[in-house]
# Entry
Amino acid sequence: MSRPRTTLFAAAFALFVPAVVHANDRGDAARGAALAGPCAACHGGEGQGGAAAGVPRLAGLDAGYLEHRLDAFATPARKNPIMSPIAAGLPDAERRDLAAYYASLRPKPLDEPADPKAAAGAALAERGDWGKGVPPCASCHGRDGLGVGSAFPPLAGQPARFLANALRSWVDGGRSDDPQGLMGGIARKLASDQVAAVAAYYASLSPVPGQSPLPVLDTALPDDELGKVARQGEAIFRDPQAHAARFVGNSLTCANCHLDAGRRADSAPMGAAYLLYPAYRKKTHHVDTFAERLQGCFRYSMNGKEPPLGDEVLVALETYAFVLAKGQPVGTKVPGQGYPKLPPPAQAADFSRGATVYAGKCALCHGPGGAGQKSAAGAPVFPALWGADSFNWGAGMESIANASGFIKANMPLGQGGTLSDQEAWDVALFMDSHERPQDPRFTGDVAATRQQFHDTPMSMYGRTVAGKVLGAPSR
# Structure
């Protein structure tokens, strides 16, 4: 592959999500309260909605999200015999005021009987149905269902009937206002029983932060002492900040780069990786055990420190990978192992083109500045792709080749394979051309560190982008 071209990026990000409304454009809650009388007929005097009728709760929803919904109702993108004429008759300022008012109200949990379908819905929300290409709902709406920003609304505590109808509306053409077509694509893959189950699950959760525990899911892991340790490994994999905090230095999770909790092909599945160790690695210049490979993940990808060999964290993760690998031939390449290796791009990877791809396909989730996004309760949802909370310069994802393969196969989430090879190369270069935490192997000199550890066209470490030498210590 030819050397990637790094041009200056002068264009501002055009984060296309119309749901994003800047604070200084928001409305006035007091004026909104004066306008809300007619709304109460369906949504209730406190905006809590109506479970029996399937009327959504508005209280506590993000103001930008609410404003966008009203805007959509006023267009053919969102068709509703009641809401469409109402929204069309509201001036823009009144839509903003109403959105500000309902955002200011406190949500309340639903008073509905338990639905036995909720257990199946919890599995779909937490694990998705990757066989259909359906990622977990929690990947975008947060594990607590409390939503993320203006584009990914809270689902927790919304009436089950409303949630099920909303999913069906993506399918029957009642709405088409989803950013990047994400929800329409997912809803069309769900069976009717899955729609009912996931709606029942989210209706069972509280919209108040901290009131709903995360679900305990049945798994295919063994129901014995080995399985007990493997389950701990899966828990660490999904949430290392909660279960291995002393070794973690950022907000990333193992599952950010190894989808479906390390099971998904073409996202470096853990069972397939386990088959290849012990192995000689150029990165370490010796034969690594699988446990040593895991140590590197903590040191580089998690920007933390290596758990000592034999530590319960490493034992649990290795046990989890072993269980996932059972039945597969040791020492062999299996389909979907690692990340796909893309052919060289037709044109040299380009920073400016990558910025355009990022703005249109990635910024919705990872933010215009690449810093990721957290849920309304402050829990990490979308990982940081660069900056202080991301992986450091020693991580495998700083390789443009690795990043392009992962992106092509898996991103945008739920729409893997929709980017062209060229777009994947361009946006990988763009992502890896931003500053991030220092390589722990830093020698004290950027040029020497590049020569020793990053001497490849696939690394931007030590290169100059927009007048800044990447990896150079701040002065």
